[in-house]
Amino acid sequence: MAELLLISQAHDDDDDEAALDAYSRTVIAVAERLTPSVGNLRVRGGGGSGVVITPDGFLLTSAHVVARARGGNASFADGRDLHFDVVGADPLSDLAVLRVADANLTAADLGDADSLRVGQLVVAIGNPNGFAGSVTAGVVSALGRSLPTRSGANVRLVDNVIQTDAALNPGNSGGALADGRGRVVGINTAVAGIGLGLAVPINAATRRIIGALMTDGRFRRAYLGIGGQQRALPPRIARSIARSGGIEVAQVVDDAPAARAGLRPGDLIVAVDGTPVETMSELQQLLVGERIGTTVTFTVARIDRIFELDVVPLELAA
């Protein structure tokens, strides 16, 4: 019996060691792959980390890392210390694009955060204070979080923020959050509390922002001039359109596009150009630059009737 117990214990120990080895090998492989692509950023009054996204010198970081800066220096694990210019920043997504003159950088592969699952292994890699390859590992602890951001008087929620228990060290903001294959699925942006970190996702929506920052130096958004919140539709309205919710207009800014079109507090927005909407985040995703100055048709429920209003959005001031 004692011999059987020893054999069983040895077998369990082997299984634990094999599992630990697999986990360690994954983290090591991700670190080795991404560390050359993550730089330490230094700007007047602060700094953080940045991720190389093209071999010819474009870097991605958090907008708050380079706030009010026009440039700075980026140092890499291979010892290079390079000047960078801020190409464009979008505080409302907390993303910024930088450019260095060196055309021989190691670019990271960008992944898709929409494919992440709660419990999945992720690795956070930064370059805080010049300590190259600061690596922590953990799991995705929650998805679909929102991160409030501000630019002047404008306030917005960044959607689908990734929450992870991979520790974020000071200076890791702007660094990479990677999946087990070494693909960057998020840009570390804030510490939410003890043992918690947040990252802006890399997905179709943020890729559009990154592309606009690279080419135009800014990301344009349409402006309506309303404040609202999700609300259940009255039963008769819900039955007539086979939907359960919409956006209740809580506030309409005087002389803003929504006010000029006749939108009122208490109205329920149920669709934009035929696309159903139930939350302010869904509405924000539709208010892209292409809609600025064009007629947008809102389907609105008011008391017991449904009708359409034509709104011409302006450009949201930076």
Describe this structure in words.
With 318 residues, the chain is of the alpha+beta class. Among the domains are: 113-205, Trypsin-like serine proteases (Thrombin, subunit H, Beta Barrel); 222-315, PDZ domain (Pdz3 Domain, Roll), CATH 2.30.42.10. 20% of the residues lie in helices and 42% in strands. It is built from 5 helices and 20 strands. The protein has helices at residues 2-34, 204-216, 235-241, 257-261, 280-286; strands at 38-43, 46-52, 58-61, 71-75, 81-90, 95-100, 121-126, 134-151, 154-164, 176-178, 184-193, 196-201, 222-223, 226-232, 245-252, 268-272, 275-276, 296-302, 305-311, 314-315. The strands form 4 sheets. The chain has a 6-stranded antiparallel beta barrel with strand order 1-2-3-6-5-4. β10 (176-178) and β11 form a beta hairpin. The longest helix is centred in the first third of the chain and has 33 residues, at 2-34. It starts with a helix and ends with a strand. The model has no long low-confidence stretch (mean pLDDT 87).
Describe this structure in a few short sentences.
The chain is 20% helix and 42% strand. It is α+β, with helices and mostly antiparallel strands and 318 residues long.
Kindly report the average pLDDT value.
87
Q: Indicate the radius of gyration in whole angstroms.
A: 23 Å
Described by the principal axes of the CA atoms, the overall outline is globular
Taking pLDDT < 50 over at least 5 consecutive residues as the criterion, the unreliable ranges are: none
Note the run of SSEs as H and E.
HEEEEEEEEEEEEHEEHEHEEHEEE
CATH-derived architecture of the domain at 222-315? Roll
